[in-house]
Amino acid sequence: MTDKHPPSYAHTDEDMVKMEVNLDDTPGEWLGYVMELLFASGANDVFYAPIYMKKNRPGIMLQLLCSQEKLSEMKKILLEETTTLGIRYYPLTVYRAERDFIKVGTKWGEITVKRGFYEGKAVQQAPEYEECRQIAETYHVPLKQVYEEVWKALD
Amino acid sequence: MTDKHPPSYAHTDEDMVKMEVNLDDTPGEWLGYVMELLFASGANDVFYAPIYMKKNRPGIMLQLLCSQEKLSEMKKILLEETTTLGIRYYPLTVYRAERDFIKVGTKWGEITVKRGFYEGKAVQQAPEYEECRQIAETYHVPLKQVYEEVWKALD
Amino acid sequence: MTDKHPPSYAHTDEDMVKMEVNLDDTPGEWLGYVMELLFASGANDVFYAPIYMKKNRPGIMLQLLCSQEKLSEMKKILLEETTTLGIRYYPLTVYRAERDFIKVGTKWGEITVKRGFYEGKAVQQAPEYEECRQIAETYHVPLKQVYEEVWKALD
Amino acid sequence: MTDKHPPSYAHTDEDMVKMEVNLDDTPGEWLGYVMELLFASGANDVFYAPIYMKKNRPGIMLQLLCSQEKLSEMKKILLEETTTLGIRYYPLTVYRAERDFIKVGTKWGEITVKRGFYEGKAVQQAPEYEECRQIAETYHVPLKQVYEEVWKALD
Amino acid sequence: MTDKHPPSYAHTDEDMVKMEVNLDDTPGEWLGYVMELLFASGANDVFYAPIYMKKNRPGIMLQLLCSQEKLSEMKKILLEETTTLGIRYYPLTVYRAERDFIKVGTKWGEITVKRGFYEGKAVQQAPEYEECRQIAETYHVPLKQVYEEVWKALD
Amino acid sequence: MTDKHPPSYAHTDEDMVKMEVNLDDTPGEWLGYVMELLFASGANDVFYAPIYMKKNRPGIMLQLLCSQEKLSEMKKILLEETTTLGIRYYPLTVYRAERDFIKVGTKWGEITVKRGFYEGKAVQQAPEYEECRQIAETYHVPLKQVYEEVWKALD
């Protein structure tokens, strides 16, 4: 377990908001950039959904999750980087499961696995994507194979 | 009208929650099963929407509606059966129209029709899918034709 | 049956092409207009599908069907009105069912119904949308109710 | 700046609701009409998202934004024009940026541009679609070219 | 390996067609049924994609793969069970990887695993969904856990 | 104009294939990686579309364009990195418009603009995304503003 992977206990966060913006005139080309910028500025999650808007326009609904205190920073980015003039939001509750991180040995070295717990029982075990990816690239093996090796090594 | 089809009056339900989970590493193969399980455990509705997640990942947003009292049961299933470690939810109001059920005669026998009312007027009439389907299979007729027969028989 | 609704016999058209264009930097606002323009210029069908493109970009795949002889006219519109520099296409076969048009009487007047035939049997009956819509607007009744009246009047 | 384009100051609207309806048996053909009707009756926004519903059904989630006082009018339309018997909704906050409208000269005449402001700075400038479209149709030029002319004329 | 799981060698099938139908007035409710019917009648694959059609209509593109000899049977079902009057299709080539089936022991009994090969090397190993599902239901364990047990048992 | 931006003349490429794979058990997490790998290995385009597959499974249709000679290399990656055992493909024609690259001066330095031509007339002018992005990051300005500066500088 490394410093960048601290464990955390199950908790319910009452301080979160979901923001939504409908976009029918922002080129898709900008939206990959906007997503990265929102993450880099502290959004907890950012994602897009395809929607059907008026006048036969294919559009995108940008959705993001952030804490209340990030609201105005997110608003600034959305207004400056997309074409929207209206932003809607509402509070929601987020339950986050207890999690920790373990190391699993493979023939290419150790790989971090994130575990999630529910009522003290491990219900989820997921190899860290970026580490698996790096191994796949370094050793020229399929990413799928790296995941399979980790799954086999888990008890 | 049968026992499994009780009528109900228009009402506004203030006791509902919507739960949402973003999934970028749950295989689609599991999600058909998860949907059935959530319905069988008392969810009022469950549905999926395609979303665009970080790192160019096609993902799925699972959404479900349930009563407040079902919240922890739903949470347990989501944590055990999907790969998520975070679940968000917020309360919402549900208006449910008055409804009753009538029987309509067709050449293949009676078929139940669900009717919906708004301010005392029938605004919606829908043949029960499972009954129509059974007739289509038993009599080797197109499902579309079964619906058409019912529509014609309604006044 | 009116002149603008000529019947036609079942046939297989070997002269059609499907054209496809991926768009990641055309604003959705333009695409409603482009669709109308393509239809007005002789496309048999035009439709959009949401796609996930490189660099985390939500994009749109424009698809259109037209006869071989319309190919260069469609190409011109696509290049002038969208942002694409590449257009792909391939031939396909289109089967078109035999169809005719009948009039059905309702309390608001006659409505045209398009019928489709397969091996001499009517397999499809659809009220004409624009006529139903006009009645819904003129008589201030739900569009759904107009369709229901037509369905009941069909034998 | 015309009367139909009044400027408005940045404000946060706490009086809005989002309504949602899942549709698995409303033909798509009706939904274009329903969208127009909801806009004409005072909805602030209406849009559709593709969803995966139970029993392998492709469905549509209709979403609309309106003020609290429009709630029952919207409910009436949804019940009369779609096939739903259940409507859910929840309050949300809408931030609307300060906006004004300016005229920009082009070789085809003046075109209105909507500007959006954030903290006193113009962050968004968008030619009015309907005016651009009318010019494109009148002068037989690509819509894209009309937008480009406006962009060049802006400082 | 059982009789219902015969192995097969890699081959390229030149005898396949893809059929496509755009649907804007078939209720979603019918489409789950239609998919099953097409599979039961010999389609190799059937799937739906959300599309944006004219007049602001959310639609569905039904796509199916079948052998040339199944073409007219599929056409019949599409015309009788959906609302389409036009069906398009084109030939395509299908490469199918070599595959076999092995049994893997778990604490709940043996589970079949489908393996896929590329140039003699196993590149894919997938537990059979229906068997895993049956175990999950019988033993009241998460489906995810059944898959994980199989993955661990594979070498 | 730089060496990495060679101009090219309009041409019709008859040597292309489209490959398609339906995925219902590949985690979305892998698919961002697979897309990059396919591009790096010579695919001309790669994109994903959300589809509805059997047994209520949300799936992804991977589509890629490549030249005939790349077919077996792409096949290898698809089999090794995704979970598919079947790959379909068909030839198509690609029209590529004439294009060149010019430099446009802005206050942050020169930016490359890709121009597309149709019958000798420039129909498309697009700032290069990666250059705009780098300026946005270096000078801490909105990406949108960089594009706007380029549009204004174009004649």
SSE layout and pairing:
The structure is a homohexamer of 155-residue chains.
Chain A: E1 11-23, H1 28-40, E2 45-53, E3 57-67, H2 71-81, E4 86-96, E5 98-106, E6 109-118, E7 121-127, H3 129-139, H4 143-153
Antiparallel strand pairs in A: 1-3, 1-4, 2-3, 5-6, 6-7
What does this structure look like?
- 6 copies of one chain form a homohexamer.
- Helices cover 30% and strands 45% of the residues of chain A.
- By secondary structure, chain A is α+β, with helices and mostly antiparallel strands.
- In chain A, a hairpin with a 2-residue loop joins β5 and β6 (109-118).
- In chain A, 46% of the residues are buried.
- Chains in contact: A-B, A-C, A-D, A-E, A-F, B-C, B-D, B-E, B-F, C-D, C-E, C-F, D-E, D-F, E-F.
- Chain B binds chain D through residues 16, 18, 35-36, 39, 45-50, 63, 65, 90-97, 99, 114, 116, 118, 123-124, 126, 129, and chain D through 22, 25, 49-55, 59, 61, 75-76, 79-80, 83-90.
Summed up:
Chain A has 155 residues and is an alpha+beta fold. Chain A is 30% helix and 45% strand.
